[in-house]
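The records we work with from here on pair a chain with its fold. A complete example follows; check for yourself that the lines match position by position.
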Amino acid sequence: MQRQDFRTLQRIEVRWSEVDAQKIVFNAHYLMYADVAVTDYWRQLGMPYESSFAALGGELFVKKATTTYHASATLGDVLHVGIRCARQGNTSLLFEAGIFRGMELLNTVELVYVFADATTRQPLPVPQQLRDVLTAYEAGQSVVRVASGSWNDLGRDAERLRLAVFVHEQGVPREIEIDEFDPVARHAVVYNGLGQPIATGRLVSDSPGAGRIGRMAVDRSVRGGRWGRIVLDSLVEASRQRGDREVVLHAQRHAESFYLRAGFKPEGEPYEEAGIPHITMRKVLTA
């Protein structure tokens, strides 16, 4: 087992609470590290765990967990935990985890999950939709699709995400979140392998030759899975294709680094919108 065998790698730094008197990681924590990696695995699949498995009609329950120890992790080590779905059975899934310090394999973990009814906990066949997503991901394929269109086409799904993020999570008044620009904007929505919307944004005309991107929202349970970047890139390309010379956005300050990585540059002084600190950012488009 090697690091390159895994498409998903979760970074973990060993903390004081996880070591014994010799500053060696207590053996049970390796199972916890694997569980953290499994959580990130669903994020990388774009599957909000609660809503996705409700749609699939069941839950995953751990049937068996085994660990093999090769070497010890110690206080302050930076570990990378690889996770993959190694086998699909009729009602079960086998996940393998490799816990690495650099290129050194410290621990291997096997987790057998059974798909079962959430109430009775009676085993059920693993749904074909889930099988298809797992197979595509492990083959290095995309597990999402991005749709671009009008408010009539995408408004229902875009609104659901925006209300959850901006109104319920951040406290923005609904009457200013859904506005007069929505019917004339181009909207983008990312859908996961189950057809669930997980990220959205919109593009409007700010002025001749300038686009304005806004209302960028990602389902909170799959943030960090690059879905916001897919939306952003889609809207930037739409702006370029219609002939805009630049695109501007009003970034929430906590997301400023996200837009910096996408080539946007801040300008002017910070300000508040709907009680949230923002800064204007701009990107010049090339042909």
Notes: The first helix runs from residue 29 to 44.
